[in-house]
Amino acid sequence: MKNTIFFFLLFVLAAGSTASAQDVIRLQECNNSSIKQQADSLRQLYGRDGFQVIREASISMESEYEMPVVVPLQQGSWYQFVFIGDISSRLYEVRMYDWDEKMVVYQKKMWGDVDGNIISFSYIPKFSEMHMFKPVQQNKQKKQGLCGYVMLLKKVR
Predict the structure, then answer these.
(1) DSSP state, 75?
(2) Where do the domains of the chain lie, and which CATH numbers do they carry?
(3) Residue 14 CB contacts under 8 Å (≥ 6 apart), including other chains
């Protein structure tokens, strides 16, 4: 009887792990020349102010779905986070959460704003821990294959 229960539990765990593996969000790169130009300009601008790029990635996104990006941040360091969305999207949002899942930053931009497709903010963490950024954009024409670009910079001088 114990062997039967053991094998049943093992089967349930194995089936559950394969089912949940299918729900994983995978980071996929996309290519958009205007976003790359904006990223290059911002990289130079922040570089002149003493910031160094720690992480950056072009990402393929789906309209109205958050793309979680997890990064380790050090207490007292000055960080700059940048999200560049597809120029044809009408809404851009970024939420940032600390390790306790408390939202510490929220920014929203609309298509008509001067720098509408770029969200950029500074942050100095109170603790050395993982943080999660969740950029999202809304686009009526393109539901899938939206390009986005994320950069994390750190003040070094």
Answers:
(1) T
(2) 27-155 (2.60.120.380)
(3) none
